[in-house]
């Protein structure tokens, strides 16, 4: 592309789903409802964890931060997507595009790290139950979460600076729901090998590293569960990990499909559907997963509802 004459791109135009204008309003209402449920569900989970002393444990401490991050990274994407649907496309400056890419990468990276930390928490709880309290102290919990935020910031900063030192020219239309790396790379011109290597190297420190931590943690957990003599004991122990495993499968399954595959020959429509899953659907489902599959959360919800009913009586 370097030898061709292209005009330099200073802003972009998001056009996801605009090839079917009749879908605009129905999709707008659908994604708006998903977004509102995401905000209400995750905010409710944070309030519930804060209010109920039964949930003042390391696992729910990490879950509270997961809910906060889910709210943030969904809020980075969905309002912009709603504007695209309502106006059948939306212009976005390169600076705003870079800011959106940074914030999405920042919060998505933290999400990955926290899910990995939660896997380690389950490993300690199942494999070293007598040492759980001494290992997962309040200081250790805050240290792990702070590390996730710092690592997320560093990764997002380096990847954003590297990505936006690339030259963009020619077509400025992004057939995607937000400023993400795969559609942006399609608009680059000139030499980009060095930047792409840096982006890939830092990406390895997020998704594959977190997946490795999760896989190793659950390998030890499975070995420990298999050593429990009774079937009831095995089922009870595994049930404490079921919600986390479901959330991990949803989040990393869509990310792996999107980023760790050969993109040649893939349709932009397929990519858009997958991106909706991990930016809109997964943050909405996480509170439901932990509410429906977790006894402590269900009890806390029922307790909160009974208190609200009691306070509402004359």
From TrEMBL:
Q: Which residues form the G-protein coupled receptors family 1 profile domain?
A: 41-290
Q: What is this protein called?
A: Olfactory receptor
- Tell me where it mainly resides: membrane
Q: Name one Pfam family in it.
A: 7tm_4
Q: Write the record's keywords in alphabetical order, separated by commas.
A: Cell membrane, G-protein coupled receptor, Membrane, Olfaction, Receptor, Sensory transduction, Transducer, Transmembrane, Transmembrane helix
Q: Does the keyword Nucleotidyltransferase apply?
A: no
Q: How does it sit in the membrane?
A: Multi-pass membrane protein
Say which domain of life the source belongs to.
Eukaryota
The scientific name of the source species is Rhinolophus ferrumequinum
Q: Which GO terms describe its cellular component?
A: plasma membrane
UniProt keyword annotation of Endoplasmic reticulum present: no
* Record PROSITE patterns: G_PROTEIN_RECEP_F1_1 (PS00237), G_PROTEIN_RECEP_F1_2 (PS50262)
One GO MF term attached to the UniProt entry: olfactory receptor activity
Q: Which family does it belong to?
A: Belongs to the G-protein coupled receptor 1 family.
The record's subcellular locations are: Cell membrane; Membrane
Which ranges does the record mark as transmembrane? 27-49, 61-86, 98-120, 140-158, 197-225, 237-260, 272-292
According to its UniProt entry, the function of this protein is described as: Putative odorant or sperm cell receptor.
